[in-house]
Hints:
The chain is globular. The chain has one helix at about 1-15, and strands at about 30-35, 40-45, 50-55, 55-65, 70-75, 80-85, 90-95, 105-115. The longest helix is centred in the first third of the chain and has 15 residues, at about 1-15. Mean pLDDT is about 85; it is low at about 1-20. It is about 15% helix and about 50% strand. The chain is mainly β.
Amino acid sequence: MKRVLLAAAVVFSLAASGCGEKGTGWEGNWKVADTQGQTFYITLNVDGTATATRAGGPEAGVWSLVEDTVYISWNTGWKGMIVKEGEGFKKSAFEPGVPFSDPPTNTSSAERVDSIP
């Protein structure tokens, strides 16, 4: 029961913090890679929800923009972030239990794309 309440609190706090606020410029489709280097796509929706098209099956989550970084909490327990780096963008992924303050489990480039093939 405590885990359910904690998960609900995290989702609520992300939603209340302006998740997917329209016009942030971060909404849309992003081409990234997983820990095995396999390409997949993340969609950041205006309503603060996120989806991913990973080979192991689709994932769902919520996202929030804090300054110039998108933070994503996935239903699998993984967390991710997309940040502008130089002229491009970088995606970092954190396995369950690893906080954003620790080194990421995986990083890849992140590229905005018009559509998902």
